[in-house]
Design goal:
The chain has helices at about 10-20, 40-50, 80-85, 90-95, 140-155, and strands at about 1-5, 25-30, 65, 70-75, 100-105, 115-125, 130-140. By secondary structure, it is of the alpha/beta class. A hairpin with an 8-residue loop joins strand 6 and strand 7 (about 130-140).
Length: about 160
């Protein structure tokens, strides 16, 4: 699924739509350069799942936890390498019944679950003021079904 997102409000709306298809224990991989809008998307997901508090980038904290039903785990692997990830006890989060939103998953691609939703955000013309191209993909039947539901929500404009 490919979209053009013109501003932060539209990225937030996409996050709200994504929240509508997510379930406990789901994993979403977020890829894009620093400042592409990954955390804005997560803010939309959090709002869509009922969390009203602040949502910030976990680049320096590695993980932010947003309580709710389900709990949201917002992880950022930007400052880590694969060896670091092995010591974090990721299974506790990935299999703990919450929703895991992981920025920079490519760092741990050899140890992270293969089945997940993937969100790739690209700057248009390397300009932070221009729209973003967003490509959403699915690995695994469960996530393919979620992608189809997300496509229906986005196409209908029903968030």
């Amino acid at each position: 699924m490919d979209l053009i997102v013109h501003n932060d409000d539209e990225m937030l709306e996409l996050g709200l739509a994504l929240a509508a298809v997510l379930s406990p224990s789901d994993v979403v991989y977020l890829r894009g350069v620093l400042g592409a809008g990954k955390t804005v998307l997560v803010r939309g997901v959090a709002r869509g799942l009922g969390y009203a508090g602040p949502v910030t980038s976990p680049t320096f904290t590695l993980m932010n936890v947003y309580p709710g039903a389900p709990t949201i785990y917002h992880l950022d692997f930007y400052r880590l390498d694969t060896a670091d990830l092995a010591d974090l006890g990721l299974d506790d989060y990935l299999e703990g019944g919450g929703i895991s939103l992981l920025e920079w998953p490519q760092v741990g691609e050899t140890i992270l679950p293969r089945e997940a939703l993937g969100v790739d955000i690209e700057l248009c013309e390397d300009d932070y003021d221009l729209p973003r191209r967003v490509h959403i993909s699915a690995q695994g039947a469960q996530y393919q079904s979620k992608l189809e539901r997300l496509r229906d929500i986005v196409d209908s404009g029903d968030r």
